[in-house]
Amino acid sequence: DAKTTQPPSMDCAEGRAANLPCNHSTISGNEYVYWYRQIHSQGPQYIIHGLKNNETNEMASLIITEDRKSSTLILPHATLRDTAVYYCIVRVSRGYQKVTFGIGTKLQVIP
Amino acid sequence: GAVVSQHPSWVICKSGTSVKIECRSLDFQATTMFWYRQFPKQSLMLMATSNEGSKATYEQGVEKDKFLINHASLTLSTLTVTSAHPEDSSFYICSAPGLGAAYEQYFGPGTRLTVT
């Protein structure tokens, strides 16, 4: 799996958009970008994934650059409940493919 | 989305005893499940890949005789920590790939193990 680089921590004001960057410059053509988050003392939660097109769901938007070497997860209106560690993971899409976690970005939403 | 449950959510056991943790996929079948361990303020560390009907695949450095994994059905994988010691105290999390084309992972809520 390609290696990813994320800032260790970020702050965001409540109600504002949170933009979490991820660098994956060694991504291969068949690798997807996945985002998960882990709220304190809970299991990680799947957020969104994409291959090369931008994606949006009820939780977030994922913007992938044209060269696919980086991406940004956008939480459009951050709430206090979005405070969590966010993990950007790049891997091929196979069910038996293990998922390796980096250190992620600790997002603190500030009132 | 798919739902994965774990039982128990927390457990306290004495040193030297064994503890079994269950991971269930509630509304889908999973031929593969994954077990992670997480120490305080650290990221998740993959311990092993659980395969239905066959032996688990352990990550380097994980003792397979200490962490017994059984994936007896398409909806249940169990992790047994044998002869537990205080250093085994950790947060144990399982996951299973969903049914979408991208096989995104769905995680259980975790099991907090404390060995006294």
Which key features would you list for this structure?
heterodimer, A: four-stranded antiparallel β-sheet, B: 116 residues, four-stranded antiparallel β-sheet
How would you sum up this structure, described in words?
- The complex is a heterodimer of chains A (111) and B (116).
- Chain A has strands at 9-13, 18-23, 31-38, 45-50, 55-56, 61-64, 70-75, 84-92, 105-110.
- By secondary structure, chain A is mainly beta.
- Chain A is globular and about 40 Å long.
- The relative contact order of chain A is 0.35.
- The interface between A and B is medium-sized, with 25 and 29 residues.
Question: Can I get a quick summary?
Answer:
The complex is a heterodimer of chains A (111) and B (116). Chain A is mainly beta and 111 residues long.
Which whole number gives the mean pLDDT of chain B? Answer: 94
Total helices of chain A: the number is 0
Question: What's the alpha carbon Rg of chain B, rounded to whole Å?
Answer: 13 Å
From the N-terminal CA to the C-terminal CA of chain A, the straight-line distance is: 37 Å
Shape of chain B: globular
* Proportion of strand residues of chain B: over 45%
Work out the helicity level of chain A. Answer: under 10%
* Shape, principal axes of CA atoms of chain A: globular
Chain-wise SSE layout:
The complex is a heterodimer of chains A (111) and B (116).
Chain A: E1 9-13, E2 18-23, E3 31-38, E4 45-50, E5 55-56, E6 61-64, E7 70-75, E8 84-92, E9 105-110
Parallel strand pairs in A: 1-9
Antiparallel strand pairs in A: 2-7, 3-4, 3-8, 5-6, 6-7, 8-9
Chain B: E1 4-7, E2 10-13, E3 19-25, E4 32-38, E5 45-51, E6 57-58, E7 67-73, E8 76-81, E9 90-97, E10 105-107, E11 111-115
Parallel strand pairs in B: 2-11
Antiparallel strand pairs in B: 1-3, 3-8, 4-5, 4-9, 5-6, 7-8, 9-10, 9-11
